[in-house]
Amino acid sequence: MEIFQIIGIGIIATILIVILKSVRSDFAIYVSIVTGIIIFSMVIHHLSYVIDTIRDLSRRANLEITYFSTILKIIGTAYIVEFGSQISRDAGQNSIAMKIELAGKIIIMTLAIPILMSLMDLIIKIMP
Amino acid sequence: MDVDLIFKIAGMGMVVAVLHIVLSKAGKEEYAYLTTLVGIVIVLGIVINLVSSLFNNVKVLFRLY
Fold first, then answer.
1. Is the separation of the CB atoms in A76 and B62 below 8 Å?
2. Are A24 and B7 in contact (CB < 8 Å)?
3. What's the CA gap between A97 and A81, in Å, rounded?
4. Is A51 at the interface with chain B, CB within 8 A?
5. How many Å apart are CA A37 and CA A26, to the nearest integer?
6. How does pLDDT run along chain A (128 residues), one tens digit per residue?
7. CA dist., res. B63 & res. B65, Å (int)
């Protein structure tokens, strides 16, 4: 089971960070970044399997492929923004974290505008 | 992924901390700061590569081109 490995890595990294924070707090940030990346790269295969399955389903249901790729882009942007802002927040820089989140929200909004426009087109088409 | 990297970075931090304490106790403040700086730069070089590989993975996975 992979989950036990991941939990073990998390616990060991937590202990190391707690030890390091009292002597050198800058290295604790590095350890937390590396732990996050290692844990994500351990589950990336499962995630790619899930995404391939959902893409296959959407192709079989004859959904438009642009909507699905937009949703995928939004999920990826949200994940990366959350990763960066959590690192800044761990280092005690709340204002930088807020700015990263603001930038992520704006980028997600611009990604979602085509879907909104197609919804508006649909509403206009339905209305007599 | 290699879990050794976590231990490597944590060990590097402890070694740098010990060197900083020893050098500053011996009265060599400038060498102590230099050691800390070099340690941080080395670890940053490792971590930057990892972060770039994470970004590439996310780009490929979520088609974020």
1. yes
2. no
3. 9
4. yes
5. 17
6. 889 999 999 999 999 999 988 888 888 889 999 999 999 888 888 989 998 998 899 889 888 777 888 888 999 999 999 999 999 998 889 999 999 999 999 999 999 998 889 889 999 999 87
7. 6
Distance from CA of A41 to the nearest CA of B (A): 7
Token output for B19: 């060197």
Please provide the size of chain B in residues. 65
pLDDT score at B1: 61
Residues in chain B predicted with pLDDT less than 50, given as ranges, are none
Of all residues in chain B, the one with the smallest CA distance to A111 is B64
Nearest Cβ partner of A77 from B16, B39, B64? B64
CA distance A21 to chain B (A): 10
Q: Which structure tokens are listed for B63?
A: 């088609």
Buried b (16+ CB within 10 A) or exposed e, A31-50: bbbbbbbbbbebebeebeee
- Say which amino acid occupies A68: F
pTM of the model: 0.83
| Six token digits for residue A106 | 């704006």
Cα torsion B1, A75, A80, A118: sign: positive
Mind telling me how many Å the CA of A77 is from chain B's nearest CA?
A: 8
Alpha-carbon distance of A81 to A101, in angstroms, equals: 6
